[in-house]
Amino acid sequence: MRTRFRPDHQLTARMLITVGLLTLVYAGFVAALVLLIKSVVLVVLIAGGLLFAQYWFADRIALRAMDARIVTPEEAPRLHGIVDRLCAAADMPKPRLAVADTELPNAFATGRSTDRAVLCVTTGLMRRLDTGELEGVLAHELSHVAHRDVVVMTVASFLGVLAGLVTRFSFYSGAFGGGRSRDNTAVVVLLVMAVSAVVYVLSFLLIRALSRYRELAADRAGAILTGRPSALASALTKVTGDIGRIPTRDLRTAQAFNAFFFAPALGAQASLANLLSTHPALERRLDQLATLSTELGEQV
């Protein structure tokens, strides 16, 4: 799908490299498991089935988890009006729009393809932002759809849990059984746990690095589309500040969606946490938008 969003060749390259490296990591993981345990084919088939289900039903799973519903233009005229204008400017198909009734101010895009894309915003976000700020956030999310990084993150995020799934299934299903002695079984369990831990850590770091870059890419693309980087910067500042006032219990409920949210549900990031976070530090995002505002000659 060609749109007026500028192609981001660095993002495309990073997605290809991440998927390629994850493929190598998991190929090695499966090969190691074949040497260590029985029933690995069954485990991989089950995991593959779950991955396919998540890919195929990604939009429904996300909306159900956030208790969101698809809204019509009559139900959300402001939201539809903004997205109509942005899609016309970007020359791209309009995704379905959904609203989640929660005080958490956020937004995300999901779906297995551009034709199945859904853009979801929360009532908390719409209440807090003016039209220009909301336009900036929605342009950010539409760029995720146009660049297809939503699908890559959906698949990559699922692969990140495969190691733990395989280990648990193998252990509890008796895949370590058979004629082995207790000592041999213990050694196999420890080896599988070690391999799983290494695979999980590598996958985690690769996915988080891609996630941080794709947020910077979406900020850049969305700001260029609207021509108002300052509006997106204002939205970022508001959302990040207000998230800090949401009860921690509510934030933890939504934390599983951090990699897909406009801003992380648990926002404070510092030192080592930056390496493990799903989003770049707020200061870095604001610095990029300030530079872009100067380049575009925006009148603030």
From TrEMBL:
<keyword id="KW-0378">Hydrolase</keyword>
<feature type="transmembrane region" description="Helical">
    <location>
        <begin position="40"/>
        <end position="58"/>
    </location>
</feature>
<feature type="transmembrane region" description="Helical">
    <location>
        <begin position="150"/>
        <end position="171"/>
    </location>
</feature>
<keyword id="KW-0482">Metalloprotease</keyword>
<feature type="active site">
    <location>
        <position position="141"/>
    </location>
</feature>
<feature type="domain" description="Peptidase M48">
    <location>
        <begin position="74"/>
        <end position="290"/>
    </location>
</feature>
<feature type="transmembrane region" description="Helical">
    <location>
        <begin position="12"/>
        <end position="34"/>
    </location>
</feature>
<keyword id="KW-0645">Protease</keyword>
<feature type="binding site">
    <location>
        <position position="215"/>
    </location>
    <ligand>
        <name>Zn(2+)</name>
    </ligand>
</feature>
<comment type="similarity">
    <text>Belongs to the peptidase M48B family.</text>
</comment>
<keyword id="KW-0812">Transmembrane</keyword>
<feature type="transmembrane region" description="Helical">
    <location>
        <begin position="186"/>
        <end position="207"/>
    </location>
</feature>
<dbReference type="GO" id="GO:0004222">
    <property type="term" value="F:metalloendopeptidase activity"/>
</dbReference>
<keyword id="KW-0479">Metal-binding</keyword>
<feature type="binding site">
    <location>
        <position position="144"/>
    </location>
    <ligand>
        <name>Zn(2+)</name>
    </ligand>
</feature>
<dbReference type="GO" id="GO:0008270">
    <property type="term" value="F:zinc ion binding"/>
</dbReference>
<dbReference type="GO" id="GO:0005886">
    <property type="term" value="C:plasma membrane"/>
</dbReference>
<feature type="binding site">
    <location>
        <position position="140"/>
    </location>
    <ligand>
        <name>Zn(2+)</name>
    </ligand>
</feature>
<dbReference type="Pfam" id="PF01435">
    <property type="entry name" value="Peptidase_M48"/>
</dbReference>
<protein>
    <recommendedName>
        <fullName>Protease HtpX homolog</fullName>
        <ecNumber>3.4.24.-</ecNumber>
    </recommendedName>
</protein>
<keyword id="KW-1133">Transmembrane helix</keyword>
<keyword id="KW-0472">Membrane</keyword>
<dbReference type="InterPro" id="IPR022919">
    <property type="entry name" value="Pept_M48_protease_HtpX"/>
</dbReference>
<dbReference type="InterPro" id="IPR001915">
    <property type="entry name" value="Peptidase_M48"/>
</dbReference>
<dbReference type="InterPro" id="IPR050083">
    <property type="entry name" value="HtpX_protease"/>
</dbReference>
<dbReference type="GO" id="GO:0006508">
    <property type="term" value="P:proteolysis"/>
</dbReference>
<keyword id="KW-0862">Zinc</keyword>
<keyword id="KW-1003">Cell membrane</keyword>
